[in-house]
Here is the input.
Amino acid sequence: MGKAILARKVGMTQVYDELGRVVPVTVLEAGPCLVVQVKSMDKDGYNSIQLGFKEKKESRVNQPLKGHFKRAKIKPQQYLREVRVDDSSSYSAGQEIKVDCFSAGDYVDVSATARGKGFAGSIKKMGFSRGPKTHGSHYYRGPGSLGSVDAARVFKGRRLPGRMGGWRRTVQSLNVVETDAEKNILLVKGSVPGPRGGLVEVKESIKREKNG
Here is the structure.
């Protein structure tokens, strides 16, 4: 894993490419992020960096985190996320990472927590068809038969009503359309998970290289 940055989802819009075609993009307020902690293979067994995003009031931080930020000589951060890197020796605590680490044409993987939708039935959650509403049937939106009678149990993996959304999702190989270092704006083609204002993690794509 190489480059990475934390961002806030602003929303979606559309831009035009050099051929005049409309391109749907998601606007991300990416960084600036601060390196709070650096982990190395020799000391911790793996290489990673801990990124902080969005400054936070010191009065709203507990004592252990106050010491954690004080050790890095930075102000308290609202969000903390650890990111694996190939080589952590090029990073140092307090280092600033800005959106210009990415450029147009790069491919990124974007991770976030999807919008939670609460308890949902099998029709809304899995796209089941409803039952007939004629000939005296009163079984409209139920899950239907649960499987084998002889087994006297419900098999694992059976699609049933339950919680919908609120899970972590990653969209891979999104193309970076444009970056604005002055406004900390990153435009990626297509949609990304999560609500407007939600935290997203942007990482260098693990499957595609630039212009690949």
Notes: The chain has three helices and twelve strands.
